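Response to reviewer comment R2.3. The reviewers asked that we include at least one raw input/output pair. We reproduce the pair for GTF3C1 extended winged-helix domain-containing protein here without editing.
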Amino acid sequence: MYQEGPASLVTTRLIKRVQMIIKAVNTFKVIHDPHKLQRLIYEEEEKEGHKYVVDRRSVARILDKLVADGLVRIMKIKLEGYGRLKMLQFIVHPSVTAEDSLIKSAIEQAKMKLPIITKESIKRENRLMKHLGSPTPTSFDLGTYNSVCTIQKMLKFPISCGTVQYTV
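Raw output as returned:
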């Protein structure tokens, strides 16, 4: 796993961190986020009285070495939907596959957190678009905000915003 010689520095703390990660992966089989491993290592080292905190890069380097040795696997899953992109990263035991129930349930939970588009929200957006499609200004004021552009930013619709400002 680690090379011996003057170029590598293997400390007892590094070995303890590796052991903690392997123990956590063997216990839980699926860890939903590398940040949870970082927090686990931090809590253990805080109990031991260390004053320095492990950073995410150190955890990433340890994970890379463990993946290279085949002791853990990292599953990266990309969820796309409703104009959003969410990246999921699971640290798993080598025996866990993508069809495992723990992975599937974690993916379903992440899907639930993405914004939901319902028939009512589509109807509401369509009514708003019809209303804004041919704006009839009730008052003209150069000092007010451009309501069409503001609504465009909120709804992320491609509405062309001109130089004329309307108060609707």
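Confidence is low (pLDDT under 50) at residues 134-168. DSSP finds six helices and five strands in the chain. Further pairs are available on request from the corresponding author.
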